[in-house]
Amino acid sequence: MKLGALFRTKGVDSLTGEADAGGQGLKRTLTGLDLTMLGIGAVIGTGIFAAIGTATAGNADRPGAGPAIILSFILTAVACVFSALCYAEFAAMIPIAGSAYTYAYATLGEMIAWIIGWDLIIEYAVGNIAVAISWSAYFNDVLHHAFGVQIPAWLVTDLRTALRTPDIVAGAPHIFGMPIILNLPAVVIVALITWVLVVGVKESAVFNNIMVATKIVILILFVIVGFKYVKTDHFVPFFPGGWTGVQAGAAIIFFSFIGFDAVSTAAEECRNPKRDIPIGIIGSLAICTVIYVGVAVVLIGIIPYSELGVADPLAKALSFIHQDWAAGVVSFGAVVAMTAVLLVFQLGQPRIFFSMSRDGLLPKRFAAVHPRYRTPHVTTIWTGIFVAFFAAFASIDEIIELTNIGTLFAFVLVCIGIMVLRHTDPKRHRPFRTPWIPLLPVWALILWFLPGNLIAATDWGSRGEYLVVLAIALVGAVFSGIGINAKLHGRRVPELAQTEFALAGVASCVWLMRGLPSVTWWRFLGWLALGLVIYTLYGFRHSRLVQHVSAFPARFTLIVPGTLTGAALAWWFLRDQHPWNLAVPIALLFALALYAFSVTERRAA
Fold first, then answer.
1. pLDDT tier, 459 (very low <50, low <70, confident <90, very high otherwise)
2. pTM across the whole model
């Protein structure tokens, strides 16, 4: 069995050649200001309107950050800068569709590219579930404050919350003794957005600027109205959840920064990528962070943080201080802004499917185009069905956690990809390079303080996190030493030693991922395992890098359905028990993937 086949790559020249062959070169018109506005428009969305609440209040699986959510915002912004600069280097060098999926195909191999492509479904489709849930909550607020209409709780509540609230269950209609509970507005808005995208919608710079202005004005209004009601005693204690709460809050509030990679994908359209890309990335992140910190200060100051575990925390805070008119305005602005986010994310998912289908990893029908509307209607409709179904019943906490871990994992692989390509292809022209600044003081602090935490750790999750970060810090210190020594002796710093920002990106993303509950890690592993099954059963065999497709033996018609059914049943019955029990269905899926790969390799030999 040749495992090397899983890591076959498409060279950078091959990837860029495919784009050039299509005659689709883009005109370089964007400036640093344009990219900054693009970044602000992509970043400010559901996270600040919804995720800030659950990150501050916490839940049964993780502590809340409390007032220290302010620190969580700053730490998350720093972590995002490292990953964003790595995205920028890749985007300037490989400016074609597919984003992280394409970058991984060029550096880490086909299987890793598949994992990222499968992983990006979490960022786009699963992320949109959270957007739809929050949209529903704010839409309900608009109806209540503007028209005095209140949708019944059983039509705007997720299933888990409703089942824990006897009054909601009692008020819901029952069929055969089962309560009918679903988030109807979330389903309706997803269905409407899906229909619009199937019929066809044109992206507009004017529309984007209006959305950016609307979101910023709404957040500034919240700060202005709420500022005079701020009470300093709401900031005590500042660290109710300790450092663990800050880490968990940062891991959740990361949802507020998702979208900054949109800046890096515009590298081919920049007048001066070396100057404009870092301006756009750092400028948009800095502006968003200042706005976020301002909102967080006012939010914590006007309402006890323990009351914020809802899908519409800003509106609830304004209602708490009896500013219902402002709550209605903020809710309306949130509905408008999140409608735009839903549109963009639902538009983006088919692009990922298109790239994967073009490479043969998914069937050609995933790139099917409607004969009349000329839109990818098949994937758009299936994405809409997927998002609408889970938006009807899922809790926003669980969805945000899963979205964040999937996106952070993609960021880790992009950062590693930069290091790999710097080592394997150091002479390649890079219109933009992730800057090199020796981070030796940072690595030294980690190596000094973290061993004590490692010794004191009481669970394997913490030990694993500390070991990974310590190993990264050790490598980073070596890179700093090599680079500083080369500079002192007038020599050129080796390319690999110049990737300290990429290393810092990996370390910070691992730190953020560790702040998520253990059950989220198991759900993510289950998602990856299912993706590997699909890859080994179809993508690995139909890839454009394969000369011919080998058929599976007849016994697979029994083995595959049987294993998938067994894994699904095991997951269903073990889901509410100890998270470690989920290792059983995950192991079944990994075993099926490995078996399918070995059979394919033997038949191809």
1. confident
2. 0.84
